[in-house]
Amino acid sequence: KAGVTQTPRYLIKTRGQQVTLSCSPISGHRSVSWYQQTPGQGLQFLFEYFSETQRNKGNFPGRFSGRQFSNSRSEMNVSTLELGDSALYLCASSIGLAGFQETQYFGPGTRLLVL
Amino acid sequence: GENVGLHLPTLSVQEGDNSIINCAYSNSASDYFIWYKQESGKGPQFIIDIRSNMDKRQGQRVTVLLNKTVKHLSLQIAATQPGDSAVYFCAENRYGGSQGNLIFGKGTKLSVKP
Which of B42, B44, B100 sits opposite A48 (nearest CB)? Predict the structure, then answer.
C-alpha cells in the first residue's frame, strides 16, 4: 500500500498570503489529522477530519482551517500568513474506527517558510 | 497543563549497545501510548504502541514498558545501529477522545556512535 502523501513538499510564501496544503491518506483510511511541528513547540495537533467532518480541533486560531473530500483526501488552509507559521505541517491517517485508538501513519510533511 | 514529556533531550550510545529512551506522562486517563521515530527531513514513523492494559510489549529489537503507577513509559532498543539515529517521540491518546488528537512529547535525539 502506498503511504500518506503530501503536496507540495516545500513552499515559500510571504506574510499576508494564504496557502493550501494537500494530503492523501493511505487507501482505506478515513481519518486524517493535521499537525504542526516547530522547533520551539514540537508537534501540535491542528485538527482531525473523518467522513468529511471535522471531528476534533486543536488550539489554533481560525486562520487555520481544513476540509476533507469524499475520497478522504484532505486539505488545510492557512490564511493571512504570519512569520510564526513557518513550520513542518504533517498529515496523518488512520482507519477511523470511532472510540478506538488506532495507529496514525504520517506523511513526509510540507515544509512551509513564511518570509 | 497535562502533557507527555521526556526526561532527556539527547542520548548518545555506542553501536551495539542497548538504548533506553524515557517518557513521563501526567494524565492518569491516558490509556494508549505510541512511540514514533523521526529522521531528518521525514515524517514520524510508527515504531510500537501499547495500551494501558499491558505493561510490556515487544517488537523487532524494540520493547516498550509502561509503568502506570509512576506514569512512565520507556522505549528500549536492542543492539542499537547507526540507522537508529533519529529523534524519538512518545505520544499519548485518551480513550473517549478523538483518535486524531495525539499529544506528543518534545522528543529525544538518539545519536549512535560507530
Answer: B100
Question: Three-state SS for A48?
Answer: strand
Q: Does residue B98 surpass a pLDDT of 70?
A: no
Determine contact, residues B51/B67, Cβ cutoff 8 Å. no
Taking residues A41-48, report their average pLDDT: 91
Q: Identify the bridge partners of residue A31 per DSSP, sorted by sequence position.
A: A50, A94
Pair B7, B24: CB distance under 8 Å: yes
Contacts of A106 in chain B (CB under 8 A): 36, 43-46
Answer yes or no: are the C-beta atoms of A91 and B44 closer than 8 Å. no
d(CA A49, CA B72): 30
Whether residues A99 and B95 touch (CB distance < 8 A) is answered with: yes
β-sheet bridge partners, residue B93: B32
Distance CA(A31)–CA(A98), nearest Å, equals: 10
Among B residues 16-35, those touching chain A with beta carbons less than 8 Å apart: 31-32, 34
Sign of the dihedral defined by the CA atoms of residues A5, A8, A13, A16, in that order: negative
Is B112:B80 a contact under the CB 8 Å cutoff? Answer: yes
Contact B93 A101 (CB under 8 A): yes
On whether any CB of chain A is under 8 Å from the CB of B104, the answer is: yes
Q: Is B7 a residue whose pLDDT tops 50?
A: no
